[in-house]
Design the sequence.
């Protein structure tokens, strides 16, 4: 919350509003970023991306999914967030970038980075904002790219801390979806540049499509499990505190309907496309924005290799898609005092040396060595996008440079 906001300023979305949102009846949702909350006080504006499977056709001749809770059109200055439904094609991807966003000064040499995956589409395959698709006026119903970003989901009063995130119970894990221009605008307002590395999953466009499917499958499953947990906790709190007038069967039926709507997801036979209940908390070293983006790239690569696509790969250097486990010392570091940090520092250093993937800016070089990042002059090819410099979009709103390396 800002310094002018208090707990009393928060506005809990009603069950009727949540049902309309879960059913897809609320096509576009405009929220007060820090004030509108769902059960357990979690920020509605941070809602994860969810696939509307009833309206999707992922196996058709022109496959697509309808993706909900895509962030586009809000104003970070007035603290509003707008979440859309989009029709997202699963083909026609021009390129994919592994994007590092420095969280501190220093560019690529900054102490900390956020990582995200950017999917850029060919003009005729751009994702469609469904509320604007049939508008009789205007022509801007499509977005040029989609940014998928693993982030924390938390209460409005909470702020992210990397140290606190060492305890996986501190934050829920969430895959958030942004129209690329929205995310770039917000990062630019904070003075943050993008450093984009061109991802190279074997199979060309098929590989890029497979990567998109992997990320969506992981994110959709985690989102439904997490929201189900929050609803269960919210219902328990309601049962304890609801006034007698709110104990009618209709109220109980609404909670039941909410749970049923959220459970209308998909099941997967590939264990790499799901995260267990123990893996659904954000963890700074093990399950972070960067390690999960890396995991998705490696999982998609493994699936393409099984289909016979190996061109350009050094298979001996392709890491296995492996999800690590948090340890006791990591959890204790989240709350220990200065002496405790000093005592555990050698353990942290040892872990980082053994697991360089826990450091975001080490990942591109690792993937490039395996043939999973495009190279120039023998090094991972990176493009810096900044307000005063190269833009990720040209004047037509497409992209600011030739997409062939």
Sequence:
């Amino acid at each position: 919350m800002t310094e002018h906001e208090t707990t009393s300023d928060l506005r809990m979305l009603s069950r009727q509003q949540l049902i309309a949102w879960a059913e897809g009846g609320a096509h576009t949702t405009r929220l007060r970023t820090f004030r509108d909350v769902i059960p357990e006080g979690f920020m509605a504006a941070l809602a994860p991306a969810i696939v509307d499977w009833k309206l999707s056709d992922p196996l058709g001749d022109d496959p697509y999914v309808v993706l909900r809770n895509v962030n586009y059109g809000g104003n970070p200055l007035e603290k509003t967030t707008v979440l859309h439904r989009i029709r997202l094609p699963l083909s026609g991807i021009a390129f994919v970038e592994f994007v590092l966003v420095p969280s501190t000064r220093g560019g690529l040499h900054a102490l900390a980075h956020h990582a995200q995956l950017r999917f850029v589409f060919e003009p005729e395959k751009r994702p469609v904002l469904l509320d604007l698709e049939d508008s009789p006026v205007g022509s801007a119903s499509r977005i040029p790219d989609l940014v998928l970003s693993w982030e924390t989901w938390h209460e409005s009063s909470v702020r992210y801390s990397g140290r606190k995130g060492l305890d996986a119970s501190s934050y829920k894990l969430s895959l958030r979806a942004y129209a690329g221009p929205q995310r770039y605008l917000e990062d630019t307002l904070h003075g943050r540049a993008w450093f984009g590395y061109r991802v190279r999953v074997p199979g060309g466009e098929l590989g890029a499509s497979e990567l998109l499917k992997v990320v969506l499958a992981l994110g959709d499953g985690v989102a439904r499990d997490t929201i189900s947990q929050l609803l269960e906790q919210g219902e328990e709190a309601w049962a304890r505190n609801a006034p007698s007038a709110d104990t009618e069967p209709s109220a109980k039926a609404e909670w039941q309907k909410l749970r049923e709507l959220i459970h209308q997801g998909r099941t997967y036979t590939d264990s790499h496309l799901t995260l267990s209940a123990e893996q659904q908390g954000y963890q700074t070293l093990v399950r972070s924005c960067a390690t999960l983006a890396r995991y998705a790239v490696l999982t998609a690569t493994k699936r393409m290799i099984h289909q016979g696509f190996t061109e350009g790969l050094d298979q001996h250097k392709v890491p296995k898609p492996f999800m690590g486990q948090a340890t006791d010392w990591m959890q204790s570091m989240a709350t220990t005092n200065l002496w405790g940090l000093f005592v555990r520092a050698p353990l942290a250093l040892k872990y980082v040396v053994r697991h360089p993937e826990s450091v975001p800016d080490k990942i591109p070089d690792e993937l490039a060595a395996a043939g999973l990042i495009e190279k120039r002059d023998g090094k991972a090819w990176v493009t810096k996008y900044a307000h005063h410099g190269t833009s990720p979009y040209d004047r037509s709103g497409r992209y600011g440079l030739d997409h062939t390396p």
